[in-house]
Amino acid sequence: MTAISPKKDKLIESKPKVWTLPQVILMLVILLFSLTCLLPFVNVAAVSFSSKSAILRGDVSFWPVEFETTAYSAIFSDPSMIHSLVFTVEITVGYTLFSMILTILMAYPLTKKRLHGRKFFNFLALFTMYFSGGTIPIYLNIKELGLLDSPWALILPGMLSTYNMIILKSFFSALPNELEEAAIIDGATDFQVLLRVYLPLSMASLATLTLFYAVGKWNSFQDALYYISTKAFQPLQLKLYHIIKGSQAVDVAAMEGGASTVATSVSESIEPATIIFATLPILVVYPFVQRYFVAGVTIGAVKG
Amino acid sequence: MSGETRVKKPRGLSWIRRDWRLYVMLILPVAFYLIFCYKPMLGLMIAFQKFNMFKGMWGSKFIGLENFRFVMNMPDFPVALRNTLFLNLMGLIAGFPVPIVLAIMLNELHSVPFKKVSQTLLYLPHFLSWIIIGGMVLQIFSPSTGIINATLLKWGWIDKGIPFLTDGPHWQFTYTLVGVWQSMGWGTILYLSAITGINMELFEAAKIDGANKMQQIWHVTLPGIRPTIVVLLILNVGQMMNISFDRPYVLGNPMVQNYCDVLSTFVYRAGITNSQFARATAIGLFQSVVGMILITGANLITRKLGEEGIW
């Protein structure tokens, strides 16, 4: 059977040709789009490795000019930068851990049809996707809870994403019911069923959600801007924001005329180097996790 | 043992004995929803109060729509409202068709490895924070040292740098362009999965009837993904009043204040920076209500036009 089917396929449909003129034109157009997503990075990376004078002359395009690594040594020798990096990693890990626990604890019971009040709990979660208190009431809530200017303000408020919970719920629902029944006959409790049967079987989806949460936290900035004022609790993104705004102020001053002396006093490659520094972790994991994300989006859209 | 109790039809309150562990699981997440989602919804009350931080939302005086009236008369409000609507509208007009076109093109690619690599690159911007993107934008569009202006200057196409970020209309253009760029690749995912869902026999039939590639796209692919297009369009129209905070906040600067100040940044400034909690809450509530009206209206119109809406 296996020997016949490829032949049969060939008879019905010959393999589409790749190197026809329309295909080449199509590839060129898509290549153009793809390059717009890649080249900005190449440029920023090239600038981060170039000398100040080369940058100010506008000489740097996609390859470092007068190669140097001063910007990076400046970043790595700045203790506040390293502190911020470590702090961001801690926050991200803690947040992701809490988020996963809550997401699992919410999703699992909701897949049980026998659960009384299932509709109510479902509604409780779904309603928050369409309506929220908004910026200020949420801010006041954090304030009332005494979380203002505490690292917990970066962890607790966004712990559970209903969207991710729905994705996990649909993964859990796809597992056959017989698994649970068999485990219960063997005397397992709901906790044991969840821990020993469901979780091991949904490692791929758990990995997806972990990354959803981790990337989201790594990139988050708004919560830190709203709730954090102590320097020691500034995550990397907020720090980067201050660096960017600092150098933009110089640009604006330059546009308004004069003030070019200020521009020369700021090291031009620090900002791009910080951008690369903060993006690198994402870029490293990105190729491996991308396909999980794509799967997550389609499920979320279908089930949500 | 416990299996036996399960087989019996639950009578009275025996479901509690059977399922109490599931309820224990729900305690933490439900507490989360109540504390961090529903409690702030109660806080919306302060939009109708002369809110006093010390008296709290239960002790403050009720003043009806006074806050709304005050906000509408603030000179910044119409500016922020106009900018929000304008930037969202530009984003919709420029950004909505791009993922559709891209998805159709990606779908027509024959080379699988080429498709994989370009998708990987196209999805990339979605994974970056607006701070990172904002930083790159400032770098690339910078008036004299940015690669775009530097290159154009070198080629002699322009005499002085184009003020991409420091002149109002130019800023609006840059803002829109960057938004389209950031979301175009990610936006293709839903369309691509909708295209895969189209019955292959329709394409075969079209081919037999002598339809060329363009005709197939026009008469089979596009109608096939029409429900997806409609749903996403409704959702987008429903979001007209909502604008993300990070993007305008990071890309904006004092030189284009009248162009980059939108409702989200206005709420932040009024509420958190200046502690005008009640008034800022009133703006937020106004936004939500108009948003609800917009999405219901868009849904109603599409259903009148004979399409399937989102509910």
Can you give me a brief rundown of this structure?
The complex is a heterodimer of chains A (304) and B (311). Chain A has 304 residues and is an all-alpha fold.
List key phrases describing it.
heterodimer; A: 304 residues; mainly alpha; MetI-like fold; 2 domains; globular; disordered N terminus; B: 311 residues; two-stranded antiparallel sheet; 2 strands
Describe this structure in words.
The complex is a heterodimer of chains A (about 300) and B (about 300). Chain A has helices at about 5-10, 20-50, 50-55, 70-75, 80-110, 120-130, 135-145, 150-155, 160-175, 175-185, 190-200, 205-220, 220-225, 235-255, 260-265, 270-304. By secondary structure, chain A is mainly α. Chain A has two domains: about 15-70, no CATH class; about 75-305, MetI-like fold. Chain A is globular. The two termini of chain A are about 40 Å apart. Residues about 1-10 and about 260-265 of chain A have low confidence and may be disordered. Chain B has helices spanning about 1-5, 15-40, 55-60, 65-70, 75-95, 95-110, 110-125, 130-140, 145-155, 170-195, 200-210, 215-240, 245-250, 255-260, 265-275, 275-305, and strands spanning about 50, 60. Chain B is built from 16 helices and two strands. The model of chain B is unreliable at about 1-5 (pLDDT under 50). The radius of gyration of chain B is 26 Å and the shape is globular. With about 300 residues, chain B is an all-alpha fold. Chain B has a two-stranded antiparallel sheet with strand order 1-2. Chain B has two domains: about 1-50, no CATH class; about 65-305, MetI-like (MetI-like fold, Orthogonal Bundle), CATH 1.10.3720. Chains A and B meet through α2, α5, α6, α7 and α11 of A and α1, α2, α6, α7 and α8 of B.
